[in-house]
Specification:
TIM Barrel; 42% helix; 334 residues; binds 6-(5-methyl-2-OXO-imidazolidin-4-yl)-hexanoic acid; ten-stranded parallel beta sheet; single chain; binds iron/sulfur cluster; alpha/beta; globular; binds S-adenosylmethionine
């Protein structure tokens, strides 16, 4: 059966999602092994280059100005400060540096010029560079590409149906538009979502269906567990169960075999055993460093320990994709 498909039906996605858990993990692990180098994990570092004060109303977000979360707003960081953080991340073994800004959208101003400079300089250090800056026009996407941007993160977050319960200041269509601009500029697409937002299984299935039926699968798919933050409307949401993360990761892996699936927010509350199950189910990327954007993440020492116990190795930057490598190998062997 053809495995790289962009014509999944919602019923097929639901069938995969509802497979008994161990069978689901087994199927996902088989696909993972076929398309990726086992034990290899992409290690990314996040930096919030512009924090808080965001005009949007995303119900999960500690950086929305309208909620009182205790996150201190900070204007765009200076270029040198950002480069120092990137150098530190590289020394700690990260190969992708992701810069996040609490903006609704990018504006054509001096701040954007500074971000372009940051992208150029981090790229020159030999790291893959990723940004998440909110909505982009096609022209802005092209400028980021010219500066050396490898990937742009822009999450769908949840299903189109549940979206209006979570965010009212923009639409699902806005999100899809930006993804199109990123794709058209030749930048890798990083798009996924969050679970634990009060969504149903149908919402999770619908979100995965949307991602897996885009004109091209996103090159990376972050799966976040909600980090409930005091002061946000979702502060009292029950914590996401590990097995639900595993189910999301395994379904994403089966639907989008070549994509990198990132075990993103939520690792801080997971044991090594729980994370091992996520890697088994097809996750092959993490955010490293003791802070995500504003909330805590496992520290360097704990992650080093986990890599040693599980025999994981960090993926090199700019390496040709595993899929191409495997295909080339097979062609050469013929
Ligand atoms: N402002 C830009 C935007 O919304 O696209 C970029 C930064 S925004 C903080 C990036 C992503 O972080 C969101 O799309 C969401 O998926 C994730 N995120 C934010 N707060 C979170 C939370 N409390 N728990 C889990 N993920 C969160
Ligand atoms: C993604 O999917 N998760 C990251 C990154 N992309 C930008 C963000 C997680 C943010 C968690 C809340 C915080 O630390 O503020
Ligand atoms: Fe702003 Fe992004 Fe947070 Fe929404 S998720 S409030 S757009 S920073």
């Amino acid at each position: 059966m053809k495995e790289i498909r962009k014509d999944w039906t919602k019923t097929e996605v639901a069938q995969i999602y509802h497979t008994p858990l161990l069978e689901l993990i087994f199927r996902a692990a088989e696909i993972h092994k076929k398309y990726h180098i086992q034990n290899e994990i992409q290690v990314c570092t996040l930096l919030s280059i512009k924090t808080g004060g965001c005009p949007e109303d995303c119900a999960y977000c500690p950086q929305a100005a309208r909620y009182h979360t205790g996150v201190a707003a900070h204007k765009l960081m200076e270029i040198e400060e950002v480069l120092a953080a990137a150098r530190k991340a590289k020394e700690a073994g990260s190969t992708r540096f992701c810069m996040g800004a609490a903006w609704r959208e990018v504006r054509n101003n001096t701040d954007f010029e500074k971000v372009l400079e940051m992208v150029k300089e981090v790229h020159a250090m030999g790291m893959e560079v990723c940004c998440t800056l909110g909505m982009l026009t096609e022209d802005q996407a092209r400028k980021l590409k010219e500066a050396g941007l490898s990937a742009y993160n822009h999450n769908l977050d949840t299903s189109e149906e549940h979206y209006t319960n979570i965010i009212t200041t923009r639409t699902y269509q806005h999100r899809l538009e930006t993804l199109k601009h990123v794709r058209n500029a030749g930048i890798s697409v990083c798009s996924g979502g969050i679970i634990g937002l009060g969504e149903t299984d149908e919402d999770r299935i619908a979100m995965l269906h949307t991602l897996a039926t885009l004109p091209e699968h996103p090159e990376s798919v972050p799966i976040n567990a909600l980090v409930p933050v005091q002061g946000t409307p979702l502060e009292h949401q029950p914590l996401v169960d590990t097995f639900e993360m595993v189910r999301m990761i395994a379904t994403a892996r089966i639907l989008m075999p070549k994509s990198i699936v990132r075990l993103s927010a939520g690792r801080i509350r997971m044991s090594i055993e729980a994370q091992a199950l996520c890697f088994m189910a097809g996750a092959n990327s993490i955010f490293a460093g003791d802070k995500l954007l504003t909330t805590p993440n496992p520290n360097y020492i704990d992650d080093q320990k986990m890599f040693a116990i599980l025999g994981l190795v960090p993926k090199k930057p700019f390496k040709e994709s595993t899929v191409e490598k495997i295909t080339n190998q097979k062609v050469n062997e013929m």
